[in-house]
Design a protein that fits this description.
Elements (H helix, E strand, L loop, with lengths): L7 E3 L3 E8 L2 E10 L4 H13 L4 E5 L3 E4 L1 H16 L3 E5 L3 H10 L6 E3 L2 H5 L2
Parallel strand pairs: 3-4, 3-5, 4-6, 6-7
Antiparallel strand pairs: 1-2, 2-3
Helix pairs in contact: 1-2
Amino acid sequence: MDRQTVGSANRGRLQVEVRTEGRSEVVTPVGELDHHTADLLREPLEGAVERGRTRLVVDCSRLEFCDSTGLNVLLGARLKAEAAGGGVHLAGMLPMVARVFEITGAEAVFIVHDSLESALGT
């Protein structure tokens, strides 16, 4: 994680923004989530759970690509959040990313919202 910028990280094709909104930790990946960038998302998700922030909202509205490694990061975060009494909410997925979740059946194990606003309102 880029320690010079509090609340965000960037490794070329992926930037991750993190903020607290009410009882939710909102994590916004921007760009491409794949084998090379997965740790940029894994670290803030796991860190949030370790700090007791177990209601994770991943704002996917600016996530342009997600491969199996990225999917595994989200599945791992889901398991850790649920074990701590929380969960992972996915919001605003673009069609290309939503298709990955549909094809793999992963959409069935996440709480999926059409927008960030609806994810935060639950």
